[in-house]
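Subject: for your reference before the review

Hello V.,

The reviewers asked for a structural picture of the protein, and I figured it would be easier to keep everything in one thread rather than splitting it across files. Below is the amino acid sequence we used in the manuscript, unchanged from the supplementary table.
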Amino acid sequence: MKSNNRPKVGIFTKPIDQGTSGSGSYLRQLVNNILNINDRFHIVLIHYSKNNNEIYKKADQLIISKNPLLATIKLIKEKFDILHFYPITIFSPIWLRKPKKITSIHGGGAAQFYFPYQYSKIKVLHSRIIKPFYIRKMDYIFVGSKAGKFFITNQYHVKKDKIFFTHSSVDKDFKKYKDNPIKAKKKFGIDKPFIFHLSKYSVRKNPWTMLNAFQILKEKKFDLKFVLGGKGWKNQKVVEFVKKKNILKDIIFTGFISREEIIELLNLAEVFVFPSFFEGFGIPNIEAMACGCPVITSNAFAIPEVVGDAALILNDNRDPSELANKIIQIINDTNLRNNLINKGFERVKKFSWKKSAQTVLDTYEKCLQ
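And here is what came back from the structure prediction:
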């Protein structure tokens, strides 16, 4: 790989190869924007096996071993000036002396601290013992929120001037359509106004509060459907729960849902609900705003600083009555609904992939000084 005497930067891109996870989507967008505006560095994308993602056509790539010792040997030969790790784990080959070392930490790495019962003991120990040690070896750190920065400085004892923000943003495809789309509506058999939630199923996404809130709405005779978008929702626990609550006939499980279908459903939904127990950023909230869909979300971690006053925020995200009442507010109050939609459009403008990419490149420059 010829660098033409330009500083050589290696970016670890494993999350991109893993598909549509939040961290993979974040890194794909960030790296894509870095490559679009970079004219200073020779950037090499480092991963563990060949992948057909289009991003690998835009830069050199380096395949390394998953064995950190073998990976280190190969990286030494490549003579990088900067290595940008994402994620950072016990297997990350960080023990090179020369390159400056940077990491991006999705969500500040705080989830395992707040919700240890949702993770294996190994992951919890890794976050509490190994990760802090590795993070302190970094020259600079990128986080997506002020909450993430606060957590890292206080929990991991990292100096504030080593941490920079690289916010997520909304892809240009997420927008309000002039005409109502119908493909997704027909595909999923949505024949009534509906509430929409999107995530991969997890207890961290607060499923039982959402489902109990929907039961309250049905008891109050609201003629609605609840569309649960994403993998894993049609599992035994959820199905048994909604059967017991007698709301199964009004629940729509989409399973995996395409980008186009997500945008269509956000254009059509009465409200988007996202009462998560933890989010390092919570990109679905601002994706919904970009599509003109009112948002109800939680006060967890980074969410309030991201949504500002452009969403209704739950005081208690374990209270289904509060969630149900806020849904009713949006459905019944046209002024409130329109106000949230307009504030949402303005809120989305505050986040820019290009700005985050420029922050990364500026930090690479700092590494060379």
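For the response letter, the relevant points are probably these. Residues 183-348 form a domain with the Rossmann fold fold (CATH 3.40.50.2000). The longest helix spans residues 22-37.

Happy to draft the paragraph if you're swamped.

O.
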